Fold:
Amino acid sequence: MPLWLFQILCIPVIGLTLWLAARRLATHEQKAALVREYIALTIAGYLGEQTCISLYHHYAYSMEWSARIGDVPLLVPLIWPLVILAAIEVVDALYPLAAEADTKTLHWGRAALVAFVVLVDASLVEVVATAAGLWSWAEPGHLDVPLIGLFGWSFFAFGAALLLPWLRRSGSRFREAFLILAPVIAHALIFLSWWAAFRWGWRTALEPASLVFCGAVSIFLCGIAVSRRSKGHLLGLDIVVGRLAATALFLALMLTTTPERVDLWVHLACVGIPYSLATRWRAQSESSSESVRSA
Structure:
């Protein structure tokens, strides 16, 4: 798939995901707040991305990207806020108590869960996009992506997930502007993790060991998904549809650029299977309801 076509296809996926997120909200005020948060996260995401490129020189986007602001393709900061907001919905659906975040422990725990979901999602985006040549990294790692590269947007998501509940309770007219602190938090975590861990090791090609590790993590996540399913906490199709559209786009990218890469297919399976187990598919829901009625 040529990059120009990938960029064109990204636009309806962004629109669909944002529309579905707004459709799940009950009031016009909530929908307006979603748009404000999306815009604020887009600006904060751009600033985080541009400063990371300028300060660390650890990765670069392909020159074939069409619209850029500085070193960053315009589509990138338009996409990642939706990834973060979708991750928040995933956490809140699977762990309803975390959504309340009435205590500091729940609040920090919820942010950590959101960051982990974004890490899982970003791992798939990074390895597929890097293999397809959408961007490149200065060092190898897991499937040509250094570990700190996998954690970058996860760190940003952690800051955003920490800030959003507080901002939503704030009465300030310009409260969303404080999301600018999310890239500051991301930079702090990148700096700390680099000097505490990533600078000293894991800076070579890590597969096949990293693929085995991904498999182990996937099995662990499958166990969590089964546990959540047994308690009735699942992802509804209204949450999953937007994610499926984005996954289909990256699947098409794989099929048209690197279909022979078995390692990428393994990584895709490691990410996709736990999500499948954590989803309430319509057919399963209907059959389950019929079983209950017949019983």
Notes: Residues 3-294 form one domain. The two ends are 51 Å apart (CA to CA).
